[in-house]
Amino acid sequence: MIMEIKTIFSRDGYTIVEWIEDGLRRRGKLPFQTNKTITEDMLSLILPYGMVWGDVVYPFIHPPEIVSEEIDKNFYNNGIFTQSDLQKANPNQVLGLLLKSYGIDYNIFMKTVDNYLEAR
């Protein structure tokens, strides 16, 4: 169920709108400029807006057994062997280790986004 549709901005002949649907924030592009209240019946006119991040990130996903080995290696090398160790660890360090395990860093990720957009 959609609660409210709000206009994010309207310019250059289109309007970006946002709504919550089934607990997920969505955005779309209306192919016309408007300052009027957007109604639910206008949703059929909305074009997709934004990246499909799952499609972008997919190339980073190694086979699960490789990721599992990398997580073990990275956690063990940083002294994280138990739940207690995990609870004592810096949360940012843990996230960094997970990203490292998946072979993701910011620069590689940004390059992947560029490649994804060029291929479309």
Description:
The protein is of the alpha+beta class and 120 residues long. The protein has two domains: 2-50; 54-119, no CATH class. The protein is 42% helix and 22% strand. The protein contains five helices and four strands, in the order ββββααααα. It has a four-stranded antiparallel beta sheet, with no helix packed on it. Strand 2 (14-21) and strand 3 (24-30) form a beta hairpin.
Morphology:
elongated
Total discrete domains: 2
Q: Calculate Rg over CA atoms.
A: 21 Å
What is the N-to-C order of secondary-structure elements (H for helix, E for strand)? EEEEHHHHH
Strand content: 15-25%
- Main beta sheet, described? 4 strands, antiparallel
Q: Compute the number of helices.
A: 5
- Indicate the low-confidence ranges by residue numbers: none
Which structural category do the helix and sheet elements fall into? alpha+beta
The separation of the N and C termini measures 31 Å
Number of strands: 4
What is the helix fraction of residues, given as a range? 40-55%
Strand order of the largest sheet: 1-2-3-4
**What's the average pLDDT?**
82
